[in-house]
Amino acid sequence: MGVDFKQEGNVAYITLNRPDAMNALDPEALVRLAEIWAEVKNNPDIRVAVLTGAGEKAFCTGTDMKKAKVPDECMAALYYKEGQPIIPHMKMWKPIIACINGFAIGGGLEMALACDLRICSTTAKFGLTETKVASLAGLNGTQCLPRAIPQAVAMKMLLTGELIDSAEALRVGLVSDVAEPDQLMELARKYAEKIAGNAPLSVMAAKQAAVMGRDMPLQHAIDFSYLLWGILRDTEDRKEGFTAFAEKRAPQYRGR
Ligand SMILES: CC(C)(COP(=O)(O)OP(=O)(O)OC[C@H]1O[C@@H](n2cnc3c(N)ncnc32)[C@H](O)[C@@H]1OP(=O)(O)O)[C@@H](O)C(=O)NCCC(=O)NCCSC(=O)/C(=C/c1ccccc1)CC(=O)O
Questions:
Q1: Is 106 in the pocket of ligand 1 (CB under 6 A)?
Q2: Which biological process annotations from GO are given for this protein (predicted)?
């Protein structure tokens, strides 16, 4: 169906699988992706997701420009529809790792920007090229790229459509890690399993505090963060975490 999904332990692996088209998002893939994100969000056994692309060339090059068609529904109906494939619209507090194995362009980079960790292969290239094809990085790119990296670099990318490579992406902080192509998925797995081993309610609260707090005045964000700490204070998992520490054993978290 163009997007593969598997669950291993508490980790979901999502692979955009149209390598011949650089994993561009055709209408079928968009529908499937929306279903998958709903599963990740609602399945309590999933604690973290890894998003990647099939093949060695591309993570995702955005909208499939050969298959895109104007939808039957009007824009307003689409705008208010549940189940959008792009993550920030979904109050998705489970972490998502973008495992960027090649080109991340247009909507592909925008999806990566909506993820929490971004790691890439040495071969990766990044760009918001929408202005070159008479469109706009309107999913989140115009807002999230300048928040993720220095404004001058973001504006250069947005206005020229130029690509940057993995070394530049690391230098400006667009990604946290660069790995050889054959080691990238292993690195993603390592991070995913570390996150999945932490207390799931704490992980979601940490993401929510960081994501929502970023857009609040600092004192409001600190208050919000303190309230989130408060709802974690009486959880069974917090007791388990403290007890396991004292007993020098690994904690067994249950998300309650
Ligand atoms: C990535 C490239 C630079 C790679 O170039 P290369 O020469 O290595 O390979 P190609 O021969 O070009 O590609 C191989 C094969 O894949 C097809 N391909 C690649 N990307 C796409 C695509 N996005 N859509 C359809 N098909 C694609 C290519 O045609 C080849 O097929 P073949 O000839 O073998 O049959 C280079 O491929 C490249 O520059 N690709 C385009 C990247 C791009 O411009 N992406 C932006 C798309 S617009 C977008 O993402 C939007 C998102 C959005 C915003 C707001 C709201 C919703 C969505 C904008 C929008 O939808 O309006």
A1: yes
A2: fatty acid beta-oxidation
